[in-house]
Amino acid sequence: TPRVEVSVQQLESIKAMLRVDQAGELAADAIYRGQLAVLPSHSPMRAIIQHMHEQEKQHRVILDTLVAQNRVRPSVLSPLWYTLGFALGAGTAALGDKAAMMCTEAVEDVIGNHYNDQIRELVKIEGSENAKNLAQVIKVLRDEELEHLNTAVDNEAKQAPAYDPLTFVIKNGCRAAIWVASRF
Asked: Is 120 exposed, middle or buried (0-12, 13-18, 19+ CB in 10 A)?
């Protein structure tokens, strides 16, 4: 079959997707590192968080590889994303197990929607094998992120102290970070 070229606009959109997704996986890695640094060793959430952290580290490897293969400039704010992620993880873990789960629920809710938006955009690019393949990769990542959301809800995320204001701040912080990281 003939190779279908994507438009310049589509190519820039794909590069922005990869940039923001790499930054997001870096931040997710940092969130879980922060939580694990603060949660007590006897916390029943440690094993659950460790499992989710292992998946996020794999997501990071996948995005790092895609960014390199596609010659995408990473976010210049990567150190900031890592620092903010670690602080968010440590801060919510300091409030207890339920708050750590609330953080995961809030972040993964935004990320699940973000990945769905990207998948919808990629499937509109007809005839591009690369866009089709990237959509499949993002579907796998999205499904694991939504698994994390469900795990958090199953582990009493909604009973966290100050659930409503904290989820509001975390979700809007994630949305703002997505906007900024896709550009810078």
From this structure: exposed
Q: Are 122 and 132 in contact (CB under 8 A)?
A: yes
pLDDT tens sequence across 66-84? 999 989 999 999 999 999 9
What global pTM score does this model have? 0.92
Half-sphere exposure (Cβ direction) of 69: Cα atoms closer than 13 Å: 11
Task: Please answer whether residues 21 and 135 qualify as being in contact, where contact means their C-beta atoms are separated by less than 8 angstroms.
Answer: no
For residues 152, 158, 163, 164, the Cα torsion angle rounded to the nearest 10 degrees is 110
Alpha carbon distance 136, 138 (integer Å): 5
Tens of pLDDT, residue by residue over 127-140, are: 888 889 999 999 99
pLDDT for res 126: 82
CA distance 40 to 179: 34
